[in-house]
């Protein structure tokens, strides 16, 4: 008998029919003799609907109340799925985050899990219950409801699997695994049998929303066996695994991630003197705005341009801060641009393969796409481009790097 944590995403519990289908699936696992903890998301669209309601009241509602509001979506699906299981004669119990006691910090809307109390869950599992836990939510030490950031139910599942030392954490969703890129963007995208934690972490950080970044971090840190699978189609899915010394030759590129979530800010004509980068980015950091790609141009006549990206939602706030700094620094102008996209190639094989960057730049040049910014890490190259060329860029790169083709000569075992 094994203990399995299974997470079902929003589309998989998006209607009563689908909740019944999930219950059928859970029933099959139960018949195989497994102990089960099921983590559910809110019905698809529900979290967005709730955020929309809040925005009708206020442009900047209190984050504490936002969490009280958006956490309700998951409470609905836990109860409905438990009822569907009970109807099938399966003892099941719903739990919200504070009932489990998923203790988090108090960073409302992006809280981090600190600790999970597994006592009650273990007691109920031993008593034969299937447990249905609300994803995405926790509670801080003062009893306030918190949420874990968009896509956070993945993290709830992995964290529960770690706390309960489950045999596997299965993320059931509306695609049958992790692909070389978003299969909704590129028809020829290919499902990966496995991907390393490191690659998955980069892909998630660079925009592949199939798994939340923190879920991958958690799984890597606590060695949780993690698999992404289709909710309603059988198949092996994708295993997220540790890099293996027996990988004789890894493919150079595992996948392509992309995001439209960023915006670019440029301060034109800043004096090229020591400390300028700090004067610009210091106040941005102090305002808790995360900065991603940074570029400073070569200076001409002692002045230069300084460009960086932030999350799109933070663009206006960052622009306000920069306007003030620009005046202090005697800079010429501040430009904000939210019509950008970032495309990233990810792969551990890049470590041992030179020339990936130039091949990437050539591929983009061939389709006349201008690169605005570049950033690299050991296993990733990202470029910022005009948003309107995003699809073309992803498709071209997918084809140039032959990602639709199963790599040969790869030993994975
Ligand atoms: P859920 O509601 O089940 O959590 P998500 O919408 O969060 O589902 O994640 C699944 C979606 O992730 C897919 O429908 C797909 O469009 C998108 N996606 C982005 N990049 C990838 C990728 N590399 N592989 C698979 N799916 C991806
Ligand atoms: N319902 C939340 C969201 O839409 C959490 C999740 O689905 O993982 O972001
Ligand atoms: Mg998700």
TrEMBL record:
Report if keyword Transmembrane is assigned.
no
Name of this chain's protein: Aspartokinase
This enzyme catalyses: L-aspartate + ATP = 4-phospho-L-aspartate + ADP
Enzyme class comes to transferase
Q: Name one GO molecular function term.
A: aspartate kinase activity
Q: Which PROSITE patterns match?
A: ACT, ASPARTOKINASE
Keyword ATP-binding present in the record's keywords: the answer is yes
Q: In the record, what lineage is assigned to the organism producing the protein?
A: Bacteria, Pseudomonadati, Pseudomonadota, Gammaproteobacteria, Cellvibrionales
What residue stretches are annotated with the ACT domain?
265-348
Q: Which UniProt keywords apply?
A: Amino-acid biosynthesis, ATP-binding, Kinase, Lysine biosynthesis, Nucleotide-binding, Transferase
> Recorded E.C. number(s)?
2.7.2.4
**A Pfam cross-reference name:** ACT
**InterPro entries recorded for this chain?**
AceGlu_kinase-like_sf, ACT-like_dom_sf, ACT_Aspartokinase, ACT_dom, AKii-LysC-BS, Asp/Glu/Uridylate_kinase, Asp_kin_monofn, Asp_kinase
Q: Give the UniProt family note.
A: Belongs to the aspartokinase family.
Which pathway, per its entry?
A: Amino-acid biosynthesis; L-lysine biosynthesis via DAP pathway; (S)-tetrahydrodipicolinate from L-aspartate: step 1/4; Amino-acid biosynthesis; L-methionine biosynthesis via de novo pathway; L-homoserine from L-aspartate: step 1/3; Amino-acid biosynthesis; L-threonine biosynthesis; L-threonine from L-aspartate: step 1/5
